[in-house]
TrEMBL record:
It comes from the Bacteria. Residues 1-89 form the HTH arsR-type domain. PROSITE patterns: HTH_ARSR_2 (PS50987). SMART domains: HTH_ARSR. This is Metalloregulator ArsR/SmtB family transcription factor. InterPro entries: ArsR-like_HTH (IPR011991), HTH_ArsR_DNA-bd_dom (IPR001845), HTH_MetalResp_TranReg (IPR051081), WH-like_DNA-bd_sf (IPR036388), WH_DNA-bd_sf (IPR036390). PANTHER family: TRANSCRIPTIONAL REGULATOR, ARSR FAMILY, TRANSCRIPTIONAL REPRESSOR SDPR.
Length: 91
């Protein structure tokens, strides 16, 4: 189920940082790695987890990949979470 993957993906503080940075606009791995105390390969691994969870997108631009937040991925997550804000039967 994609939601469990998404929750696991956002559980890590480094991945939450990456999402916050991508919320501000598209970025490359090198741009994202500049703000974290981890290696560029580690940032790439974190981005792969976010990609697999459907929370980010990647596009090739020359020899680089540019990452963005996946609106569709967060929409699915929001729809799932919103069901808990609806009034439950008997309340």
């Amino acid at each position: 189920m994609i939601f469990s993957d998404a929750f696991v993906a956002i559980a890590d503080p480094n991945r939450r940082y990456l999402l916050e940075e991508l919320r501000r606009g598209p970025k490359t791995v090198n741009e994202l790695a500049a703000g974290l105390p981890v290696s560029r390969p580690a940032v790439s691994q974190h981005l792969k987890v976010l990609l697999d969870a459907g929370l980010v997108n990647a596009k090739a631009k020359g020899t680089r990949r540019v990452y963005t937040v996946s609106t569709a991925g967060f929409l699915r997550l929001n729809i799932w979470l919103d069901q808990f804000w609806e009034t439950a039967p008997g309340e």
